[in-house]
Amino acid sequence: MTENNIDGQINNLRVPDHIAIIMDGNGRWAKRSGQPRIAGHKEGMNNVKRIATTASHLGVKVLSLYAFSTENWKRPSTEVSFLMKLPVDFFGVFMPDLIKENIKVVITGFKDDLPAKTQNVVNKAMEDTKDNTGMVLNFAFNYGGRAEIINATKILAEKAVAGEIKPQDIDEKAFSDELFTSVLGKYADPDLLIRTSGEERISNFLLWQMAYTEMVFDDAYWPDFTSDNLINDIRTFNDRDRRFGTV
Ligand code: V07
Q1: Structural domain range at position 73
Q2: pTM of whole model > 0.90?
Q3: Alpha-carbon distance 27 to 223, whole Å?
Q4: Lesser CB count within 10 Å: N end or C end of the chain?
């Protein structure tokens, strides 16, 4: 945890190392002002940059954002196509800011199932930022918690069949090593999950990794979620007692 006191404005804020966010409410944000859903997604994308910048300045080590779930393919095809272009827009507009902020981009999810163009763009973004030493911006993209667990299980089963691992050697460490989040090293498990827009569910995000995560549900729609919301939610987190099942 990083102690933060930016210019004396943010006193005694203990900033969690890994914050995960379910960016919900983009469609409702658009509907509220009579706009199509995609207008909400676009504004939501702009907010990713604002919140990532704030998190980086606060000293967050990993910011994980749930961008697209393995279930989202069931949405209307026009919306899916639009969403698949958002990473292209995002890096097209914000790559210079990410470089300036020393942010490293990682993608966790089933990347191979993405359209080729989207894959190329995200691979290039990871490549262009791989030597950055600041905050890790982790996009959970075509991600699903159960699918991730099954994927890890298959890998371990294949290793067992190939004689590379003994079933009795499968422990929490061996299992975590096969999850997408293993690239996050010691920060693989979020300390704090924030879900915007008032819904109080995990919705198949980071199931294994959230065993001990504190959850804060914020009523703001994602496009309206500001740095002040983030700081308030961190304060809520700070006010809770984390005991990891001990007394
Ligand atoms: C998406 C904007 C944020 C609110 C949630 C719905 C819409 C950024 C990305 C993104 C993903 C991968 C990547 C770089 C950027 C994104 C989707 C939707 C599918 F490498 N925002 N955003 N991807 N929205």
Answers
A1: 15-143+190-195+207-237
A2: yes
A3: 10
A4: C
Q: Is residue 99 part of a domain?
A: yes
Once rounded to an integer, what is the mean pLDDT over residues 226-242? 92
The pLDDT of residue 15: 97
Is 72 designated active site?
yes
Instruction: Write out the two tokens for 131.
Output: 């030597």
Per-residue pLDDT for 99 more than 60? yes
Q: What share of the chain is helix, strand, coil (3-state, %, to 5)?
A: 50, 15, 35
Q: What's the CATH number where 112 sits? A: 3.40.1180.10
CA-nearest residue, atom 21 of ligand 1: 45
87 CB within 6 A, ligand 1: yes
Catalytic annotation present for 171: no
Q: Which of 90, 136, 137 to mutate to test the pocket of ligand 1 (most atoms within 8 A of CB)?
A: 90
**245 pLDDT exceeds 90?**
no
In a domain, residue 183? The reply is no
Pocket mutation for ligand 1, best pick of 24, 37, 47, 68 (most atoms within 8 Å of C-beta): 68
